[in-house]
Amino acid sequence: MQEDFCPPNGALAVAGGRQIASPINKLLSMPFTLRIATRDWHPPDHVSFATSHPPPHNTAFESQVTIANPVDSSQTTAIPIWPAHCVQGTPGAELIPELDTSKLDSIIDKGRTKDVEMFSAFADAFGNKSSDAASFGLAAFLQEKAVSKVFVVGLTGDYCVRCTAIDARKEGFEVYVVEEAVESIEKGAKGWEGVRADFDERGISVISIDRPELQDIKLSE
Question: pTM for this structure?
């Protein structure tokens, strides 16, 4: 929920992105064990930025670039090219003021190294858990606090939310994604609808904010 992901001036603004602050704040008011936000916190020459590559293959939203695993260079993957966004220390990297940050217990800064993408709050695009790429290890932190259920919200459903939910499931957590508190870049089969189908196969539940799973949280207050 950063300025660069939200209209009207975000470099990578998602339609409706600012509006989901309201349901997220409603969730933040519930008595969860932990409430954690993430921030993309990229260096100015991050590998995903169009400005980091020469033309003609540097068109934001259209081009891709192949990156190598920093731990094993024989492993590669293609990632999308984006406009420069959420650069460390810039206004675009800040959490939006509509979000009630007073309710947060922690903030993870992720994507801090220039050569690898990190959509997930748990690990980079290759599954590495690097203290360079993220400000702290989320899985270990949640396990230390005896957390068993993870509820994922925010921007965007087809990238950071998707990857965070999938990695949370891989770590053994029971995972829920709250639909009213998510917006995506793409809505159809190549976007949120495709993500939902993938979640079903992985045992990740997409729920409404009024579902019993969240009512149980309220009752624990």
Answer: 0.95
